[in-house]
Amino acid sequence: MIKVCCLVLFLLNQTLSAQFITTNEQFTPLELVENILINSGCASVSNVSVSGGNFSSGENSWGYFNAGGTTFPFTEGVLLSTGKISNAPGPNTYVSDDTVSGWGGDADLNTALNINNSLNATVLEFDFIPLGNQISFDYIFASEEYHGTATCQYSDGFAFLLKEVGTSTYQNLALIPNTNIPVKVTSVHPAIPGGCPAQNEQYFDTFNGANSPTNFNGQTKVLTAKANVIPGQQYHIKLVIADEGNYRYDSAIFLKGSSFSVGVDLGEDRTFANQNPVCFDEVLTLDGTAVGAQNYQWLFNGNPMTGENTATLTFSPPYTATQNGTYTLVTGYSPTCTTHSDITLDFSPIVSIGQTQYSFCDSDSNQDGISTVATADVVPTVFTNLPSGFQVGLFDSPTSVNPLPATFQNNTAYQQTYYAKILNNSCYDAVPITLTILTFPDLIQDETVPLCLNVPVVLEAQSGYSNYVWSTGESGATIVATLPGSYTVSFENASGCSRTQTFTVIGSEAAQIDDIIINDFGSQNTVEIVASGMGDYEYSIDGIQYQSTPVFTQLNGLQYTAYVRNKKGCGITTQPFFLIQIPKYFTPNGDGIHDMWYIKNLTLRGLSQAIITIFDRYGKIITCFSGASYGWDGTYNNRLLPADDYWFTLSTAKEVLIRGHFSLKR
Question: Which of 161, 140, 112, 124 has the alpha carbon at shortest distance from 38?
């Protein structure tokens, strides 16, 4: 049982150790350069030297690393650090910030990076004579300074310095591709929350976790240092890295083993990504002629190209997508020197012009031929066979460099010419596009329609158009509505532009007369008709003349009818009403005219039980009678009373309704 456990622990330790790189400080500087970094006979190396930290433990800040079995991008190579390389292997669980007394910086690095405070410099330098006209090698920059907002502020520095022997001016090869910007923590990183925006993020690889193969907080992607050289000329290269400002937070350069190659310059990559592909009508010749070369062989994506064994390779249209890839020229100088020179080519296809005439309806209420248009409604159909990744933009002129925004307004009414251009490929001419703005100039009025209870109503859209579609799902110019609500209908004119008409259907009904308020005890008679119901009403007391107010004045008649009419035609409600009339005099002379004094219509007004009391001028009660009585004949105890003014009250059991007077004439 003990043996089995020991075996399990042994295998577990082997697995864990395989996750991290290892370092070796036993290689000499010459071995690191000749056998690890270059590892070929294509460059004659001499004057190799190295310098770094003089640690009392005897450890170095430079040496060999092996990453076999890990996720690190390089299998092996040369490691230069601002601290002990023994601290470089993972896991990334502590901060490496080694230093030693007297470990200074490097003046050439200061000059290359325009700084003056480097320290803890590690330098590997040597002379070499190339056979080809271009050198290159791959590297990764890693640093403990990739952490938090420090990423935005601090960075150690490094440089790959190249010069011809006998000259004094160095060229720095450790630059962000196609720029003069040195590779540093502060120049290569993603956006840092609360810190700074991204800088050249496409060259940043990752922030490392605890199980990283190396003990550094972050690293770049694989970068390539490259320079043109003169075959047979002696050069000096100086690879240097140093802390900047203080020794805290170490950094390192990982140089890929066998990546220091000498080849020929076939030119820059011509790719869609670089926006410089080979044009569909272009003839391209790659020329890898090299002094002292004994044989050539071209490869395509790593495979030999039959019959292509000269220094040149020519491409002629027409091209297809199967030709996109990496072309390699293998140049043999001697049995011990074979160089590989790569170039990646993408070939632009012939694109077909698709749609160039576009019509859109004016999208706003002002139908003036000026409208907002979305570029996404145009650009996808201009070309019919556009390769993936090609981007198209619209421009207001063939020479404009600024594409129109995602939405734009034409500035020439009704029709204007624009130009479609492929943004990330300069091989194609601008394509003129005609943009026509169609209008719907007719004025369409919304309507409010009454819906009388239990009586369906017909909604009729504006006539003379086509493709009527209602919000109910029905089609045709008319529908029948049985419920109140909002109904919309869209339709098109001859240009295919649409409009929407809205019908607001309001439920309505005949009114209910709740009360008729009569004021006929004053000097002027007035009546107010109180009605309720779902609708808009108007009022009349003769059935002919209607008014919006329910109040009527100056009524001289005794009997009327109240009319309440629904303005939307949903019925008329009627109710008769009566006014009382108090005579100002009476003439009881037996001629049958005005012989009796009484208040007219009391019974019709519901006042038959009211009591009328008559007084003489001295307040003496002459008589009393009810509202249903025939009235007073001008006598008192069967005696004729003299002509005079008399007073009266009209009372109910609760109150006196009115006091007044009248004249008896004889």
Answer: 124
Please state, in angstroms and as integers, the Cα–Cα distance from residue 552 to each residue in 518, 541, 563, 573, following that order.
10, 8, 12, 17
d(CA 637, CA 633) in angstroms, rounded, equals: 11
Task: Record the tokens describing residue 618, joined without a space.
Answer: 């001295």
Q: What is the pLDDT of residue 12?
A: 37
DSSP assignment of 357-417, as one string? Answer: EEEEE--SSS-SS--EEEGGGTGGGTBSSPPTT--EEEESSTT--S---SEEE-SSSSEEE
Mean pLDDT of the chain: 92
Residue 433, φ and ψ in degrees, nearest 5: -125, 130
- Domain ranges, residue 617: 585-664
How far is Cα 570 from Cα 18, in angstroms, rounded to an integer?
Answer: 92
- CA atoms of 69 and 16, how far apart (whole Å): 11
For the segment 363-420, what is each residue's pLDDT rounded down to a tens digit? 998 999 999 999 999 999 999 988 888 899 999 999 999 999 999 999 999 999 999 9
Encode pLDDT of 510-554 as tens digits.
999 999 999 988 778 899 999 999 889 999 999 999 999 999 998
Q: How many structural domains comprise the chain?
A: 6
Mean pLDDT of 143-162: 94
C-alpha–C-alpha distance, residues 331 and 193, integer Å: 49
Beta strands in 245-302 (DSSP E): 251-256, 261-263, 284-287, 295-300
Residues 452 and 466 in one domain: yes
- Residues 410 and 427 reside in one and the same domain: yes
Helices (H), 427-543: none
